[in-house]
Amino acid sequence: MGQETREQVVIVVGAGPAGLATAACLTSLSIPYMLIEREDFYAPIWTKKSYDRLHLHLAKHFCELPLMSMPAEYPTYVPRAQFLQYLDNYVRQFKIKPMYNRSVIGADYEEVSQRWLVKVHNSKSNETEEYFTRFLIIATGETSDTFIPDVEGLHTFPGRVIHSTLYKSGKEFSDKKVLVIGSGNSGMEIAFDLSNYGAKTSIVVRSPTHILSREMSNLGLTLFRYLPHDFVDSLLVFLSKIYYGDLGKYGIERPKEGPFYLKEKYGKYPVIDVGTYRKIKSGEIQVLPAVTSIKGDEVVFKDGKSHPFDGDDYLLGDDGISKLEFPNHWKGKNGLYCVGLARRGLYGLNMDAKLVAGDIKTAAMKMMTPDQTPSPLQNTNNVV
Ligand SMILES: Cc1cc2nc3c(=O)[nH]c(=O)nc-3n(C[C@H](O)[C@H](O)[C@H](O)COP(=O)(O)OP(=O)(O)OC[C@H]3O[C@@H](n4cnc5c(N)ncnc54)[C@H](O)[C@@H]3O)c2cc1C
Ligand SMILES: *[C@@H]1O[C@H](CO)[C@@H](O)[C@H](O)[C@H]1NC(C)=O
Ligand SMILES: *[C@@H]1O[C@H](CO)[C@@H](O)[C@H](O)[C@H]1NC(C)=O
């Protein structure tokens, strides 16, 4: 099939949902590509690292990848196992064959040849491979590099520090004291799960955050298409106030700006409540302000108070990195693109994938010069 030829038209880095979506869109436009994945399976965050009770946070039509709907019989909130089945069908439907066990370790644009030189470490052969490509698409995910928040004195913490992507279930934490840092959706859901397993759970809420129920968030996403965004934001804040009341009592401030504004402008998601809030209200889960430093078994918080943690305790970190700002987040210079890096979830990466594939199609057609120099889409025998 010539998939491993050194000359490529498009290289996609990362075979998570974003890379798979991009691959499908490229195929539908008859654009050949090579997909590189450092692990030995696609979507490893879902297949290997996700925790046991995970459902998709959003209703299923916001979690679909391009060009293939989820089966009608799937419930509105798709459980992980069914999402995996969907991904499996997706990979087969679009005949996606990632090159596994390969990490991209660098990419340089060569002005003269107008191509990217992509350096890849093959972990199986322990060799460095080099490829050339006109278009380079980064779909490496926001959580791919296990990231532990950088807190002063973290190394002196006597207990275990782990990243939320390595968290599977609260089972091993029952009766343990756990501090979850990061109040995004995974942090909140993990706190809920830990508490259900009987862990003494605290969660750090660093900054003001909106809390919406699933229904509110779906209503918002639907109305958002038809109504002014300010209006939808005010409506959601209103509904959240009625439903949840004063969050400040429990240590959670509401932001001044609305949830969609914050999401679009800063990539800051509202928290979609899965039951955590009820536990916060009942005192089962304690909310703490930002951690300022750690001095051995004393964790110091922003309000000046400190709480003890010992060698049996855990600290679970969770964070993301937004690299490019919405809405110009998907296109860089010289044929460089990003898919799924704007903190907008599966819904966002679906849109990015379509935009990027369409843009590459247009750019590749333009490269067809009047003297009939073939476009990079012709003369390739590695169409997948
Ligand atoms: C626990 C959890 C639950 C989530 N639930 C939802 C939800 O319900 N709804 C929603 O919309 N979003 C959800 N998200 C957010 C987001 O949609 C998912 O994280 C989704 O997997 C993102 O897809 P991705 O392809 O961008 O990134 P990833 O799934 O992280 O995939 C990136 C891929 O790139 C590979 N890679 C990274 N670096 C390199 C490299 N240098 N070379 C080669 N390969 C590399 C990785 O191995 C990985 O396979 C959730 C996220 C998490 C962590
Ligand atoms: C990837 O590497 C792992 C471990 O090194 C190995 O078990 C697996 O067979 C490899 N997969 C592929 C597709 O090469
Ligand atoms: C891989 O190769 C590098 C040098 O190219 C060497 O230092 C390293 O020990 C090798 N690793 C394995 C696992 O063989």
Automatic annotation (TrEMBL):
According to the UniProt entry, what is the EC number of this protein? 1.14.13.168
Q: Catalyses which reaction?
A: indole-3-pyruvate + NADPH + O2 + H(+) = (indol-3-yl)acetate + CO2 + NADP(+) + H2O
Give the record's pathway.
Answer: Plant hormone metabolism; auxin biosynthesis
**EC category name:** oxidoreductase
Q: Could you provide one GO biological process annotation from this protein's UniProt record?
A: auxin biosynthetic process
InterPro entries per the UniProt record, alphabetical = Auxin_biosynth/cation_transpt, FAD/NAD-bd_sf
Recite the UniProt keywords alphabetically. Auxin biosynthesis, FAD, Flavoprotein, NADP, Oxidoreductase
Q: So which cofactors does this thing need?
A: FAD
Gene Ontology MF terms in the entry: flavin adenine dinucleotide binding; indole-3-pyruvate monooxygenase activity
Q: Which family does it belong to?
A: Belongs to the FMO family.
Spell out the protein name for this chain: indole-3-pyruvate monooxygenase
The source organism is: Dillenia turbinata
